[in-house]
């Protein structure tokens, strides 16, 4: 059999919010046919310039903690690397070596052992809930616990309940925020991306970190489009996250999320490739053809048909209820622009029929409007 002349993500629009490795993820998605818009949601504070991290490091050296919790491998390694740059690495490792060391999972465990700090305990999973249970079972009242956090700010931590419950159990908690971030400046590419999400101009938005999710939500508030962004993410714009920690801020807001089994960039690209057509494409049998409606194109019997924005708006309006008649007035309101002339509908339908290659796909219902000439009133795919 010959290979199809299209890639699996042909016709789909994906937004990339990553600050790191955005070019790599964008290339993977474009290779699979997606139209990609990339704008970093956050800017990282360079470790050598992080005065807050240095101050906390010096404070722990002066007064070592009773317990240290490593939550991420890259974050813990970054902390040690920053201390090395300040000439404080040996003093820091000595201070941490006097404490009980707990790891949140295999990656953090590897970083601890590489630094010569064997862990007292670690769960098989990367569950902060299991770590919390272990610490509380052993008793932590009155103890000073240093918790290494990744991708945090003073206003936002990736594990807020974890820290709060440690405090509720009587511990003094010292958050060590490694790889802190701040939102990118206003009036740039990221603002345009957030606005486009609100206007549902994407089929999916990819997130590789919880801070990127938080930054998008905060910027939506700043731009006055929070309700529109949340509505889009709950319906037509699918949130694709690299893992459950990244997805957590969205889950709390009732936004459906999707993630690969392995928390890797390549796995995320493959996951989007596999899942987005199932989530977003609408497929119907029309006039003896298999019609698949995607973000920016239509496929007729597996052949890509490029449509104008007006053509896409027309076919989407007709496909909302396949086989039902759509009035000229309803079609006019669905078209881009603000025309009040129903002649624009006739022109749009004429051009749509030509682009699809078979004029029988869209039927005229005299004095009522237009309809898709469906073979089966029930769609095969999902909206």
From TrEMBL:
<keyword id="KW-0238">DNA-binding</keyword>
<dbReference type="InterPro" id="IPR016032">
    <property type="entry name" value="Sig_transdc_resp-reg_C-effctor"/>
</dbReference>
<dbReference type="InterPro" id="IPR036108">
    <property type="entry name" value="4pyrrol_syn_uPrphyn_synt_sf"/>
</dbReference>
<dbReference type="GO" id="GO:0004852">
    <property type="term" value="F:uroporphyrinogen-III synthase activity"/>
</dbReference>
<feature type="DNA-binding region" description="OmpR/PhoB-type">
    <location>
        <begin position="281"/>
        <end position="374"/>
    </location>
</feature>
<dbReference type="InterPro" id="IPR003754">
    <property type="entry name" value="4pyrrol_synth_uPrphyn_synth"/>
</dbReference>
<dbReference type="InterPro" id="IPR039793">
    <property type="entry name" value="UROS/Hem4"/>
</dbReference>
<dbReference type="Pfam" id="PF02602">
    <property type="entry name" value="HEM4"/>
</dbReference>
<dbReference type="InterPro" id="IPR001867">
    <property type="entry name" value="OmpR/PhoB-type_DNA-bd"/>
</dbReference>
<protein>
    <submittedName>
        <fullName>Uroporphyrinogen-III synthase</fullName>
        <ecNumber>4.2.1.75</ecNumber>
    </submittedName>
</protein>
<keyword id="KW-0456">Lyase</keyword>
<dbReference type="InterPro" id="IPR036388">
    <property type="entry name" value="WH-like_DNA-bd_sf"/>
</dbReference>
<dbReference type="Pfam" id="PF00486">
    <property type="entry name" value="Trans_reg_C"/>
</dbReference>
<feature type="domain" description="OmpR/PhoB-type">
    <location>
        <begin position="281"/>
        <end position="374"/>
    </location>
</feature>
